[in-house]
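Dehydrogenase/reductase (SDR family) member 9, Pygocentrus nattereri. Tokens?
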Amino acid sequence: MFLYIFGLVVFYYVYRWFRELKRVPNKSEKYVYITGCDTGFGNLLAKHLDTLGFCVIAGCYTEKGEDELKKACSSRLCTVQLDVTDNESIKKATDAIKALVGDRGLWAVVNNAGVSIPSAPNDWLVIEDFKHMINVNLLGVIAVTLSVLPLIKKAKGRVVNIASVFGRVSPVGGPYCISKYGVEAFNDSLRMNMAPFGVKVLCIEPGFFKTSVTDINLIQSNIKKLWDRLPQDVRDDYGSDYMDRVKVMMKQMFVKMLDGDLMKVVSCMEHAISAVHPRSRYSAGWDAKFFWLPLSYMPSCIADVLLLKDVIKPKVSIL
Ligand SMILES: NC(=O)c1ccc[n+]([C@@H]2O[C@H](COP(=O)([O-])OP(=O)(O)OC[C@H]3O[C@@H](n4cnc5c(N)ncnc54)[C@H](OP(=O)(O)O)[C@@H]3O)[C@@H](O)[C@H]2O)c1
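Tokens:
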């Protein structure tokens, strides 16, 4: 009996592996628009797709990012200056894309641009701290998608959203998890809305990777800034040595968890764009597959115990 079940499982994975190998034809006629291409996953994906023969339209936040990417890629790649929080900038980019793709439509948009600070306990923050990140990570994704959706429908193409394992579990305070939960929700409703039009909507959920988003120096200096502006009574609750303990914990955690192999994420993005049969969801990284996603399926009472075990407690903690 066990052998029979084992055989079925093996057959399923072998079948899935073969099915997922097949790639779409005519890459050189397919346009892919990627946001946040200055650094990190977006930058690597732009270069990778360019090498594979796609026509990449790279949205860059800075002029420096545009120049460096152009130098590193073929003449097929074009760049557009893009701030995903600015409607005017999105419209200008969309007009340029319309002119480029013509009647073929746009094969894919990859919503990759994102930021990760401020991240801190919620009682350290004010509402303004939430707005900028939600504007970039969530409203930016929606605005860019809506601006090019007619072109994607024309090509029966794809929307690829970069969420996070923190769109499934929410262990840190601040707007990051909120924004990524929102991306997951937008992704899921759009996937169903677009299915009748032959448009596929795919979601990538990376674990912890070494990029600017997880730059420990940037994150720590931002936490220090937030600490410095706290009223004395809140600082007293957390204790005068709280920041030092957080620094030590973060250093240990980041050394243990950060994965330097960005191709694990970029390969998932590339598969979502170019496979004939892409997956609805991709979890990239061992921590995503074996820790964060299983954790997201656990009852809250168990997940909370596991997460609170290693967290730095305030001085007045009753736990
Ligand atoms: N690294 C991870 O562990 C991890 C895990 C899960 C999910 N993610 C997600 O992956 C995506 C890519 O992040 P990454 O890790 O590759 O970090 P990254 O290197 O910082 O890439 C993010 C890019 O977005 C750009 N950007 C920031 N604000 C923008 C705006 N308003 N408009 C347009 N572009 C903007 C940044 O430009 P500048 O560099 O010029 O600021 C940067 O090029 C993000 O959505 C992030 O949340 C990352």
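The mean pLDDT is 96.
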